[in-house]
Structures are given as C-alpha cells and as structure tokens.
Amino acid sequence: MPDTVDALLEMIRQPQRSDAAFEAMLDLFERDPAALSLLLIQAMEAQTMRCEMLVAASELLPDEDTCEVYRFAWSSFKAGSSHGLVSEICLQAARSAPGLLRDDWDAVLRLSESEEIGGLVWQHLPAETGYRWIREARTKPPLAQWPTRNALKASGIAELQLAANELGGPLDEPWGTVELEARAGKESRTGRALHGRRGLHLRFGAKIQRVQLADFRSVVRRFQRLHPTWAGGKSRTTARMGGRLEGRCGICGAPLQRLLDLDVRLVGPCSIPLVTFGLCLACPDTGESGWCHGDPVFFRHDEQGRPDAHESQELDPRIVPDASTVLLDLEVELVELPCARWEPVSYSGGWQNYSRVGGAPSWVQSGMYLSCPDCHRSMFFVVQLDSHVPLTDGSLMPWMNGGMLYTFWCDQCLISAHYSEYS
Ligand SMILES: [Zn+2]
Ligand SMILES: [Zn+2]
To answer: Backbone dihedral region of 191: left (phi > 0), alpha (psi from -120 to 50 degrees) or beta?
Structure first.
C-alpha cells in the first residue's frame, strides 16, 4: 500500500494536472479507506502542495482515523508549518475535535487568522488568555485586531465580548448584538442556546441526488457519492417536503407550499408534535420584500403546526403571483452522522451536502438569529436548505440566486421565520 500512496503523491507533483490523481485517490479509498491517513500524513511531511485531491481525501478520512491525522497536523502547525494542507486539517480539527487544540491557545488564534474557526473551540477559552489577547490587540493596527475580536465574541463570555466590541469601535445596535449572537450561537441577554447540539442531515433519494450533482465534474460526482454528507450515516426518520398548504401568503395572497413537515423536538425545544414549515414561492422575484431580498418573513402556526401569514406581512397589490415555481412533493431522510465535522460554521461552497435540520447553522455571510416579531426573543435555528431543493419542472430552487435558506422557530409564540443569505 505505501507504494500506492507514493505513486499518488508523485502524480500530483506532475506539472500537468488532470483528474487522474483524484480518481486514483478514490480507488484507494474504496480499496482501503484507512490508507488515506497515511496519504495525508505523508503529504504534510513532504509539504506537497495543497490540492483538490488532498482536500477531498481529508473529507473522506474515516472518523476513526481523524485523531492521528489531526494530531500530526496540529503539531506541525504549532512547530511553525505554514503548509496549506496543515492549516486545512487543523481547521477541521478545531471544528470537530476542539479538545485537541486546547494545549496552545496562541496557536489557535494564529490558525484563525487564515479562516474563521467559529463557536465550539472558543467556548473553552480561559478568561485570562482572553484578557491578555485584548491587551496585545490594543497595540496592533485595526486590521490585525480582527482575529482576536472574532474569537472573543464567539467565546460566549460576556466581559470578553464587551471588551472585544470596544476593539476597533463598537457596532451600532442592533447589529452589535446580531453579530455576537451569530458568532456565539447564544442569546446575548440570557445565554440561552439558539441552536441544538447536533443536527440531522437532510438526504434526498438517489434520483434527485443525480439532478443535484449533475453540474459537477464526473470525478467530483463520484467523490460526492462516497461523501458522508451525501451517502453516510444512519437514517433517523423521514420528513415530507412539497405540496400546497391551506395557509396563504400575506404579501401576494397565493397559497403557501410545504418546505418540510418536521418534529422539531428532534432538534430543539418544541411544544407541539409536528410543525409544517411553509413559504410562498409565488412572489419572491417580484415582491418589494420577502426572503429573496434578504428580509425575514414570518408565519404564525396553529396547535396542529399549520402555518399562515403573520400580520407583519403586508399585502402588495402590485404583485401578480407567479405559480410556476412548485416544490416537488417528496419524502426526505433525516440522517445522523457520528462526527461533528459536517456542521461547519460557515458555508465554504463546493462539495458537501449542507442541507440540515438543527445543529449549528453554516452561515453563508455573517449570519443572524431572527427576532420573534411577537415576543422579541431571538428565535431558535431549525433548518437550512441549500439551493438544491427539487422543483416540479426538473430544476432546483435557487434560494436568493444560489444561497441558503435558514428557518427559525419561536416555541413560545408558535411562529416560524425564514431568510436567506447568498455568497
Ligand atoms: Zn407571496
Ligand atoms: Zn415569540
């Protein structure tokens, strides 16, 4: 097997790039998944240039082998390696095995200079380290203060967040609070969690997956068919998507469509057994407001969980509803994956299946937990849908031109909310 790993590393050193090395890596994975840890460690040792195939290998690395590879990457990073694959793997470790990185907080801060790490790891930051970083950041130019600001805001420690806010000038309210909550995943006033601990991946059937992956290169499609978020894990239950609802849009008057029938209790606090999340797809492209413009849209639910327009939606008589965008009526699987690495804090595009129910959201932009229009508390995150939800005409729903739709729930008022972000 070492011969194969050597051969693979040799292939990616060749100046002429093709998909052959990527294909060979997938062959190796299918024959012997554990060989990927050897491939990645050797690539880091030899400082092989970070490339698509190696990043793909790090994503396919079996959960049981991650520890060895993460440890290697982390000691290399701490020893001063600036190798792209080393930082890539350290970032994965920070998200899925944050305990491993807690032996050197200054190195974690340095790692976050290349890409934001997000909540989990910072929530164990010792307060005295945070105070020292603030003192050090004050001596740096404003741009160099950002990693410290972001880390302290995500720490969830109120005094550190306050101090971080003062670095580089505080944001005007309510945006300061919105930013803090998006980073920490906790309500600012109360510390209440705004997302569940772990989510379920939303999985479409094989026929739909073929449509969802059709635009990728054939080797990437093969990779995705092996990827845990598209193919792995254990199905917990199914949920219905699509179909007309009785409730109507308050902006154009068209009937709502079912986004998902969900037992929200699977992923967060909910007092009713089933919530039907619904949305109007008849007015988004002509309306002056609505989720397609980045504005939140709210629905009130009855005790059976059925949605209807919230009073905040204002009828716009200029809109002619367009009934041509119809979600396909189908059943999706809700799948549990054992490893937290598939809930990244930000959407980095590309290969994985980001559609999820619960857990922490993957923000495309800076993120926002919406406020309930009735009780004004921050709402709980329940669903994110990538722009690959199938429509009856065979195309895929492009949330806000190819972004992500985020759905929230206030259990106190039985109100749902949606908004989208795009890259
Ligand atoms: Zn409408
Ligand atoms: Zn409320």
So the answer is: left
Listed residue (198, 197, 170) closest to 186, CA to CA: 197
Ligand 1 ion local residues (Cβ < 5 A): 249, 251-252, 254, 280, 282-283
- Kindly state the tokens that stand for 117: 């790490």
What are the tens digits of pLDDT across the range 212-231? 999 999 999 999 999 999 99
How far is Cα 269 from Cα 408, in angstroms, rounded to an integer? 12
209 close to 202: Cβ distance less than 8 angstroms: no
Q: How many angstroms separate the alpha carbon of residue 232 from the centre of ligand 2?
A: 36
Q: Which single residue is written with the structure tokens 């990728």?
A: 216
- pLDDT per residue as tens digits for the range 264-296: 999 999 999 999 999 999 986 543 445 555 678
Q: What are the structure tokens assigned to 130, written together?
A: 């945070």
pLDDT digits (tens, 9 = 90+) for 122-151: 988 999 999 999 999 999 888 888 899 989
Cα 294 to averaged position of ligand 1 atoms, centre (Å): 15
Residues 153 and 164: beta-carbon distance below 8 Å: yes
Alpha-carbon distance of 134 to 138, in angstroms, equals 6
Determine the distance separating the centroid of ligand 2 and the alpha carbon of 360, expressed in angstroms. 20
Q: Single out the residue of 94, 53, 149 nearest to residue 343, CA to CA.
A: 94
Q: What is the pLDDT of residue 388?
A: 92
